[in-house]
Design goal:
TIM Barrel; eight-stranded parallel β-sheet; 12 helices; alpha/beta
Amino acid sequence: MRKKLLLGNWKMNKTPSEAKAFAEGCGEMVGYAISHGIDVGVAPTYVCLQTVVEHAPKGLIISAQNVSQYDHGAYTGEISIPMLKEIGVSWVILGHSERRTYDGETSEKCNAKIKALLDNGMTPVYCCGESLETFEKGETKKWVAEQIRVGLEGLTPEQAGKVVIAYEPIWAIGTGKNATKEIAEDTIGFIRRTLREMFGFVADDIRILYGGSVKPNNIAEYMEEPDIDGALVGGASLALDSYQGLIAGLVK
């Protein structure tokens, strides 16, 4: 059985002092989640990563929001895998729609990053999702399949089994307009079938998250669906009380 996962993507929010306050205040709820067999984590900005690592309760997953595929060199503004490893960060979000839209992140580039992370024993969280225009044209599955096939190209089944997938329809991110649980389940089920075509039955063990205006009052309904294994949450993961509400929704 796949373990449920809640990952909070803080995006460009929280100063180090605010991140410290969150890390120091989430111990009880993290323990509650772990006792119910749920993995929970947050993805702070680069300047907050070490602060959260130093003050987080045991068991809280700490993820970066991006990483370079190169381990060193003349890449101004980038952060390397060895840098993350040295401060104790072993998860990284890749291919988020905001990175794709604003920074030119491609599935091909994500593929190189995924391979580099796996070579270093780290966990990639690979995002995919379609625009409103693509959704309205009925081309969601074609679009998402291409992102999955390109992003995971060349992986072995064993490697693929170590990747977490996050389906986030772009039209539902931060808009308040979330995909229905039926739409999310239909697309995530399709993603799992695509993974099965690529990697065989290891696809049944790959965790696939839903993201897009997930909140404490709607997370439970998504978790009722058989192929949805958790959530990648933005704004609703920033406040301690909201984060606690998300965990409660996963436990139901």
